[in-house]
Amino acid sequence: MAGSPRDLSGPLLPGDYEEVDEQQLARSTPLERILFALAFLVPPVGLIGSIIAAVRSSSRRGWVIGLLKAGMAVGVVFCIVAAGCAYAGYNVLRQQQAHDRVAAASAGFCAAINKDPTLGRDDGGWPQPATSVPASLSAMQAFVDRWNALAKASPAGIRSKVATVAAAGSEVIKTVTAQRTVNDADNRSLVQSAVSSSGVRNWRSEYCG
User: Fold this and answer.
1) What keywords were assigned to this record (predicted)?
2) Of the chain's two ends, which shows fewer C-beta atoms within 10 Å, N or C?
């Protein structure tokens, strides 16, 4: 019938704004309310949809309603937040993948150091003085050999540092060989300093499970 009221519950159609007042035009449509919700739930979709709806609103109403403006603002903010979270998550994933690669490369190192617990001690398993200088030198050489073997089994990230422990043991051997006496306190202190600087214990804790 000619006198029946127009249905304004759905999207506006061309010419609708000519027959209704501004109060009626200012009412949001179901689609516009959905787009506002999407700006929170699925920011990119809500933002793009709100921009398109804003263009349509301007064309049909002559202005952009506040709900669409809010939807665009929320969409921008939440897109930035989502992008930041995605970037952070990507970095965490990359770091975990890098950690896993180093752990895999450390398998030989871990197997060797777990097989010989003395390598994980503060002094790296440095031997006690034997009953004679030759016997002490033999025990010291065994220490150097163990650490050289560990260095060969170590990943690139720690191999050179492991080798410094063996090098410290070799320096002690040279000194003892030249002096023909064993100063255990000084020798042990030198080796302990090398073990501490090598980072072997931290590496074992981080990558050997």
Assistant:
1) Membrane, Transmembrane, Transmembrane helix
2) N
